[in-house]
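Quick log. Single chain, no ligands specified.
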Amino acid sequence: MLPLTALYFPQTAPSIQQVTQELVFFDKIFYYQAAEAEKTATAATAAALWEGYAPVPFHDDLGRFRQLIRELKGNEAEFYSGQLSTLAAGKDKNRDEQSVKSLIQSIGGKSAATSEEQARLREELWQARLLLKLAEILYEEEQELQQELAAISVKEQELYEALKGEPEIAFTLSPPRQMESRLPVRPEILVKAWSRLFLADRRQGDYTMLVSGLNDAAEMVFDANESLTGKRPVRLFRIPLPASGDMAPAAYDQARAAFRQEAAETLAGFRALLPATAAEGPGPDTLKNFSALAAQWSRIFNSGRVWGPPAAKPGQQTGCQAEPHLEVYLCNESLPRLLAHVCKATAQPPAAGGNHLAIIALKSHRKSTCKG
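-> predicted structure:
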């Protein structure tokens, strides 16, 4: 039986901490890198669960790309908003896009492309990788800022605790700060750039499932599905995920292994049913079978033997609360066709037997019904 894998969407080079919850369900998650990564030591456990690669490597142009990134460091937001946002316009051209093309042509050297179409594709891939790399940098800067704000909040609390015994000293804590991660670029721009990399990836046929924590990104794929087929994707199932963000790595690894051992039969059912559904489409019992598997998962999850007892009191519907869940949807088209529609590109004809339906797994904190 094949392992249960997915491709992370639409960020490039995210940290493994962003997917610890999803990795309770998946055997392994792959992700894209905007460019070939520097050689770094990776823990064996992390490498077995979480693997990244550059779908469109630069090869001899890598040095020039890194030089361009160094020159733009510190001005990412201005360059992004003033230049690369034109990627959202699809094939519409304007002066900003022409200046981006001129920049890429000057930094990347002359193209060896033999046709106008190849030259256009090369420039689009340069734009996409540049935008995705700048988004990475902006996201890292945002995370650093959030960590600094969190440290300030801790110091304020410590100071408050030290001073509250002195009645003559007035002290007011700053209002709570929003600590949730957020993308520093518009999701539609990121999704279109990422989609161009997917369409150029020689390994795209290895994937039928995308996993994402960004609702706006998933909605763009759902909208493409509706535009192409007149139908909305159907939700196959919804399962709870642990609130494992604050767990130490060793404790998480132990909890993950224990839970997956207890849920081994349920996971085997998902491993069999998901690829079969992608290859053959839904049958008369597909939703019932997924609902049964989701119910098994939820019973084990809410037993409290690994992740702790449910937050709600007995008798309350714990699955309906706004806690982490994985919602898995089946589309009516393949990933290449959907993502080509998103970025207004032409999808290559699928290889024999490769026209599988796309599956989108979305990590959600939305309240929902307790069904499936």
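Residues 116-163 form the longest helix (48 residues).
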